[in-house]
Amino acid sequence: MEKNQWSKFKLRVNVQNEVSTAYKCWTSAEALESWFLRKAIFRDASGKERAANETVQEGDTYEWYWYGYPDSVVEKGTVLKANGSNMFCFTFSMGCPVTITVYVEEGETIIELVESDLPTDETTRLQHFVGDSKGWIFYLTNLKSVLEGGLDLRNKKLNLINVITS
Amino acid sequence: MILSKLADNNLSKDAVPVYFDHCVLYNEFNKSISFSNHFTSFGIISLLAGSGNFKINNVETLLDQNSFVIVNRGSKVSFSVNQTPQQKTKIVYLFFNHILSQLVAKDIFHNLNEQILTENSIDDYSLIEHIHFNNASLKENLHTLLSLGDSCASFQALKADMLIRKMLEDIITENYAAFRMADNLNVIKQSTKVSLYKRIAIAKSWMETHFSLPLKLTDLADIAMVNSQHFLRLFKKAYNTTPHQYLTEIRLRQAKRLLTHPTKSVSEVCYEVGFESLSSFSILFKKQTGHSPKKFKMMHMLDV
Predict the structure, then answer these.
(1) Which of A12, B22, B114, B263 is most buried, by CB atoms within 10 Å?
(2) Handedness of CA A137, A142, A148, A150 (dihedral sign)
(3) In sequence order, what are the beta bridge partners of B26?
């Protein structure tokens, strides 16, 4: 791969749901906990915690906790954009932006995830480009499964480690 | 996060570990090892099994799996581990990224809106560069970190980074508290202030681990290597409480935790946390919580 090709990756998954349903999976703590996180906390610009079912807004900050890990493993970031219909963007690994776009293609709803601005040094490539894309592949697959009425594939046991499902 | 193997240096007598920022070095040794005096980065040295003699800036420290040390950037460290046939020695070195630690420190101090640390002292961890005892959360975090090192878990590198950042935040917060406490000692000469603060901090850390023993002021003063009256004065100045009051506070905190255990009786809890008399335990407990230990336990059982 060219050096600049390590600075971002794009993943797409098709789901048999409305665009609005797929978009809402990203924009409240309750929705994110149904397929992605053990616990999600969003705060508005004044630092006030949003209700679990409240729609998040641009400028909100978040704390995300994971199944299979204690609360000391917490990702903190910011919502960069939430247009209310089909685009949601937030800071993630190393502060890099992750942009979610939802649209229709060939009659199916596509959820597209782009993680960009990744540093292109070898260490970051090995750890974050590879590690993050692997992580998102699992979670986007789980999102499809949950959205289409299938199983929640996440490992929820704290003592079970070294599995791709958590 | 990078998980690397701490070199087995027996092949070369003068070998020292090679450090790079934001890394975890780990190895298990089944033979005696030693590393000669060398400069380190800012981080944590811990043993998950076995024991070893560490020398940090020429001060000797015996580390085992119930203790760890924080080392300052630029300090000189040497160590030797004598292997016993029964148990392997497991050493973890965790070093923090220098720029990240500065950013996190500035962020924490900005939020606290206080100006105790100057730009020059923000990198100075000499006050907390000493032995620390039995930190259960640190141990759990190190185990999690090592398990992430060669894991196929989702977002493995990101999770390791999150954990390292959390540990870094805890250390920076502790360092900030240490600066405040050391300031209370009203000692002008910096080297004396650091030395005195470290001595009482080690004794305080010892109390937090050994609270169930019948500790006396002279025992604690011995750990701090000062006479008992001097220790008492220093402790009061630094922490604004006496060693006895602090010990009682730790015991009551532990008692509250143990009383929520369904099968432990009040008297079992009383003796387990180090009180010698059930009546004085009950009086102190009620004074602090507003309820007798028995009522506190019952209330918890009803809540459950």
Answers:
(1) B22
(2) positive
(3) B5, B92
Residues of A in contact with B163 (CB under 8 A): 72-73
Residue ending a domain, among B161, B184, B207, is B184
Q: Looking at the domain assignment, is residue B192 inside a domain? A: no
Count structural domains, chain B: 2
B198 within domain boundaries: no
Model confidence pLDDT, tens digit, residues B34-73? 888 888 889 999 998 888 899 999 889 899 888 899 999 8
- Do residue B178 and residue B283 come from a single domain? no
Give the CATH number of the domain where residue B252 resides: 1.10.10.60
Distance CA B169, CA B166 (A): 5
Report which DSSP code applies to B12.
Answer: S
Question: Is residue B236 in a domain?
Answer: no
Which residue segments constitute the domains of chain A, with CATH numbers given? 10-147 (3.30.530.20)
- The residue ranking higher by pLDDT, B103 or B291, is B291
Classify residue B23: in a domain, yes or no.
yes
Q: What ipTM goes with this model?
A: 0.89
Q: Please give the DSSP secondary-structure letter assigned to residue A50.
A: P
pLDDT at residue A120, as a whole number? 86
Cα(B231)–Cα(B239) distance, integer angstroms = 12
User: In the listed set B184, B206, B235, which residue is the last one of a domain according to the structure?
Assistant: B184
Length of chain B: 304
Q: Which of B3, B158, B165, B168 to mutate to test the interface with A (most CBs of A within 10 A)?
A: B158
Q: For the domain that residue B15 is a member of, what is the CATH number?
A: 2.60.120.810
Chain A, chain B: beta-carbon pairs less than 8 Å apart: 68
Strands (E), chain B: 2-5, 23-29, 33-39, 43-49, 51-56, 59-64, 67-71, 76-81, 89-95, 131-133
| Mean pLDDT, range A34-55, rounded to an integer | 97
Nearest C-alpha of chain A: how many angstroms from B166? 6
Residue B74 belongs to what domain range? 2-184
pLDDT tens digits, residue range A95-124? 999 999 999 999 999 999 999 999 888 877
- pLDDT tens profile B80-102: 887 777 778 888 889 898 888 88
